[in-house]
Amino acid sequence: MGTHVALHPDLMEWAVSPGGALFCARVRQHIANGGKLNRRLRLQMTDRERADLIDLFGDAVSATDVQLARADRVLRSSRHTLPLRMLIIGAGGPIRTKRGQTRYRAIIKRERLMRERAETLTAIADVSELATEHGLLASLPNDNRRVPPKGSRAGTPHWDTYCAALRAAAEWFRTASRDWKCSERELAARALGGTKTWTEASKAAFSKLVGLPFTEAVHTSDTGLRMTGPAEWHRQGLVADLSLAEPFIELPGWTVTRDGRFDLQAHGILLIENQETFEAVTSRTSVPRNWLCIWTEGFASGALAHFLGIRVPESMPIAAWGDLDPPGIDIILDLSAKSGRSILPIAMDAELYRRGRKLVEEPSQLEKWLNEAKKHAETVPSPFKDLVTAMIEHGGLRCEQEGMHEQILPYLHHWLAELKPF
Fold first, then answer.
1. How many Å is the Cα radius of gyration of the chain?
2. Is the Cβ–Cβ distance between 322 and 329 less than 8 Å?
3. Are 318 and 292 a contacting pair, CB within 8 Å?
4. Which of 93, 154, 174, 282 is the most buried (most CB within 10 A)?
5. Distance (Å, rounded) from C-alpha 345 to C-alpha 286?
6. Residue 292: CB partners within 8 Å, gap ≥ 6?
7. Maximum Cα–Cα distance across the chain
8. Which residues pair with 250 in a beta bridge?
């Protein structure tokens, strides 16, 4: 790592000269990369820079390089009696080598882990229901492994999930002892540092620790699903006739999945990424006569994934129309994975992409989307491959679905009728 070195004013003045600054920067980089001070260091120097180096190191400097071992001897035998390494540290501060950086990161990682352990132990210390968990956590070896202790009821192999579940469970037991039942976000704010910090994994681990399903342990808010089409929701009578919704109706997603009867008379499900396009489909096409249209609102909620997995028969096709870009593909693949259902892209082919109006974006953004498309090239299902190839050919340019209504809306019902499963 090195220590602080106070240089003589003459050396400090030399270190900021053109030659001194060049030499110190290059030697610092050389040492940081693991290089030794016993070799020739090649340097491209101007006459002025070379003169500065000769002024301090004499014949250790040639036209193309500096002999570092000789430069070190010259500096040690000068009136400054200073090793070359100390000159570099004095000019620019401690040198962190690659090996030193690795050690430093390991130290920081361990300190963070020890702090997280101590904070979590403190958070659960006064909760008798978690006494066993406290003992397991306290008995972890003094190492750098970010893993939960064996035998924890949390049942997760992930450290962050484990800590979040423990802290939430501790706060839950405290509030339950006061006959208070927290809401989902209230508990997150009190125990996890923010209302939006829950993950599905931390909810599952928390439920195991408190011994109740998540929806019973806390008050949960439902997630609205905007939809329209040939379907009815019955719950002690007819609640909603979606075929009459103009332009749509919003149903409580988790409730409509769990409670009552959902009578679905549609040919299939059409998922639409953006709100303006969703409303255009519902009000300007005949699609809702035969297809249940649902707004995904970007990346879909767990409620929508659950609805598709529970309420939609396996035999019924599910299609999705999204932006013609990597996020548009990701939204569909993510929802397919969450719901366990195959989802067919519609109006997302290479021909439409090539004819579509592309977004104007900065070069750095285009590079990002191009790299995303290249990552997709080997992994996406076959219906997306031609679209991804076209994106790569066009350097990552993107098409938003709102700019393609004229090319798609008049033909959408016909295309849906021709969908083939994959």
1. 32
2. yes
3. no
4. 154
5. 19
6. 227, 228, 229, 230, 231, 242, 264, 266, 268, 269, 270
7. 99
8. 226
Q: Which two tokens stand for residue 408?
A: 């798609």
Neighbour count for residue 117 (Cβ, 10 Å)? 17
Strand ranges of the sheet holding 318-321, from the earlier edge strand across to the other edge: 249-252, 224-228, 291-295, 268-272, 318-321, 344-345
Contacts of residue 129, defined as CB under 8 A and 6 or more positions apart, other chains included, come to 169, 173
Q: Which two tokens stand for residue 182?
A: 């927290």
The token pair at 34 is 């693991």
Tokens of 267: 């040919």
Distance between CA atoms of residues 334 and 340, nearest Å: 10
Q: Which pair of tokens denotes residue 47?
A: 């006459």
Q: How far apart are CA 24 and CA 16, in angstroms?
A: 9
Q: Are 326 and 369 in contact (CB under 8 A)?
A: yes
Residue with tokens 């090319």: 407
pLDDT of residue 1: 42
Query: Which residues are CB-contacts of 218 (< 8 A; sequence separation ≥ 6)?
Result: 172, 181, 182, 183, 184, 186, 187
Report how far residue 88's alpha carbon sits from residue 254's, in angstroms, rounded to the nearest whole number. Answer: 64
pLDDT digit string (tens) for 131-177?
999 999 999 988 878 899 999 999 999 999 999 999 999 999 999 99
Q: Please give the Cα distance from 27 to 69 (Å, whole number).
A: 12
Contact, 293 vs 281, CB < 8 A?
yes
Residues 6+ apart with CB under 8 A from 392: 370, 373, 374, 377
Query: CA dist 402 to 266, 272, 281, 386, 394, Å?
Result: 25, 11, 11, 21, 20
Pairing verdict, β 231-234 and 261-264: antiparallel
Q: What's the pTM?
A: 0.62
How many other C-beta atoms are found inside a 10 Å radius of the C-beta of residue 330?
A: 15
Q: What is the pLDDT of residues 42-52, one digit of tens each?
A: 999 999 999 99
